[in-house]
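user: Kindly work through both lines:
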Amino acid sequence: MKIGVSTATYFSRFYTEDALERIARLGADVCEVFFASRCEYTAAFADVLRARLEDARRIAPLNVHSIHALTNQFEPELFSVNDRAYSDALETFESVLKVGEAIGAKHYTFHGAAMLKKAVRYNFDFAKISSRVDRLIDMAGAHGIDFCYENVHWTYFSTPEYFAKLKELCPRLSCTLDIKQAMQSGIDYQKYLEVMADRLATVHLCDYTEDGALAIPGRGDFDFVTFFKRLKDVGYDGVCLMEVYAKDYKDDGDLKEAYCYLLECLDKA
């Protein structure tokens, strides 16, 4: 396994391209690029990212494992009943994929549609959802990118059962496990791991306390050593990306400490 860092860790502090050198200075050689704005879904921005990656590689051999878009800008409309909204969302998705291909990304982290009405019981039309997801898988694959559905507590994929059903209908579907999102769903991450293990391509790491407060790795109560052991037990040997919120750390010194802590936990595992 490898430990990397997502540029989402710097969201609201630094622009996406500026985060790359900072990640390299932490010592990481793999990252996820989180696009923070529509203006970043362009060929011109792909050129900027390629140049900044080359700069970062003078510090560390940084490669892009995955890309991740700001979900609410278009991903929910990929399931829209409105044909125009759906068409526009597909066009945006294609633009993001082109940037991902240009910077060498191999995976796309997907949130999808949100469950906006918390008091409503959602009855998912899996035939329709799987058809839409298969199209997204095809589009991503045309750019050499693996489509990975991520568990998120406020989206359709908030429970293990959702993915268990969807993967039966989408045999090429991969996934991303986010441990903090599992906690926020009120479900033990092991329940997700049971259904995701054979499709797992990316893992997102963040620490949290017993009362649910988020923290950078090493400053919460999550047992990363045991977690890495469980990943190994299910045969996972991929990338685990530190993805924390800007409010939860002071500076790059904190992030360096957290990154080194994860490396130590992986070594112990």
Remarks:
- Residues 83-102 form the longest helix (20 residues).
